């Protein structure tokens, strides 16, 4: 019981430091008689540390009875596209660059052990932000991933 409480507190604290996504839309992929259909969901989130960069993620959402109850495990399939939507300002910690990247988005894709993450890297040589989306599990992750890059350029109105 104490371990579950600690995991919940950790998840709440960590989620406060990553971006929150809003659903843009979805399409059904498989009809389910009982429970919601399987879907592909498109979500958008703004990079919490970079003003005027928005990322769009499409991901699989498992339906059926287990999916409707939140007990299903979603597949590791996801795609990402990030865009500059205004003048970009980099914070000092991003300009320094981190080889391991920084998690900017995290979404649970199973009841406990699996999550979809987006990690941002700063490519200082090419003056670009690189966003990597992937799915991981506590025991075994997936090599499936998607990548998007945003060149940091002067904004033209």
TrEMBL record:
<feature type="signal peptide">
    <location>
        <begin position="1"/>
        <end position="21"/>
    </location>
</feature>
<protein>
    <recommendedName>
        <fullName>Protein CreA</fullName>
    </recommendedName>
</protein>
<dbReference type="Pfam" id="PF05981">
    <property type="entry name" value="CreA"/>
</dbReference>
<dbReference type="GO" id="GO:0005829">
    <property type="term" value="C:cytosol"/>
</dbReference>
<keyword id="KW-0732">Signal</keyword>
<dbReference type="InterPro" id="IPR010292">
    <property type="entry name" value="Uncharacterised_CreA"/>
</dbReference>
């Amino acid at each position: 019981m104490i371990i579950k409480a600690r995991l919940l507190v950790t998840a709440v604290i960590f989620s406060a430091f990553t971006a929150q996504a809003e659903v843009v839309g979805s399409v059904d992929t498989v009809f389910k008689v009982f429970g919601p259909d399987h879907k592909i969901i498109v979500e958008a989130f703004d990079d919490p540390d970079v003003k005027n960069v928005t990322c769009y993620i499409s991901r699989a959402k498992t339906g059926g009875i287990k999916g409707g109850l939140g007990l299903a495990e979603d597949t590791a399939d996801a795609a990402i596209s990030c865009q500059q939507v205004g003048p970009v300002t980099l914070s000092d910690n991003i300009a320094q660059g981190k080889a391991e990247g920084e998690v900017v988005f995290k979404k649970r894709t199973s009841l406990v052990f699996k999550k979809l993450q987006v990690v941002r890297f700063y490519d200082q040589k090419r003056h670009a932000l690189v966003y990597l989306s992937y799915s991981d599990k506590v025991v075994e992750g997936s090599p499936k991933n998607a990548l998007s890059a945003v060149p940091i350029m002067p904004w033209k109105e």
